[in-house]
Write a structure and sequence with these properties.
mainly alpha
Length: about 90
C-alpha cells in the first residue's frame, strides 16, 4: 500500500485535533480556576464590607448609649441638687 498525501493529511489532522483538545482542556481548567478565585475574592470583599458596616453600626450604638448615659447622669445630678435645695430651705 502506498503512503499518500491524503493519509499524511489525515494523520496530521488527528494529531492537531488531539493537541487542540488538550490545549482547550487546560485553557478551560485555568479559566474555571481563575473564575473560582475571582468569585472567592469578591465574596471575601463583600463579607469584609458587611463586617465593617456592622462594626460601624455597633460603634454608633455605643456612642448613642454613652450619650444617653451622660444625659441620665446629668439629670440625676440636677435632681440631687434640686432635692438638696428643697430640703435645705
Amino acid at each position: 500500500m502506498k503512503w499518500k498525501i491524503a493519509n499524511t493529511l489525515f494523520v496530521t489532522s488527528i494529531f492537531l485535533f488531539i493537541v487542540g483538545a488538550i490545549f482547550n482542556y487546560y485553557q478551560s481548567k485555568n479559566s474555571i480556576e481563575s473564575s473560582l478565585e475571582k468569585a472567592r475574592r469578591i465574596k471575601k470583599e463583600k463579607a469584609e464590607e458587611k463586617r465593617a458596616e456592622r462594626e460601624a453600626e455597633e460603634q454608633e450604638e455605643e456612642e448613642l448609649y454613652a450619650e444617653v448615659m451622660e444625659v441620665d447622669e446629668i439629670d440625676k445630678e440636677i435632681e440631687t441638687i434640686i432635692n438638696k435645695n428643697k430640703n435645705g430651705k
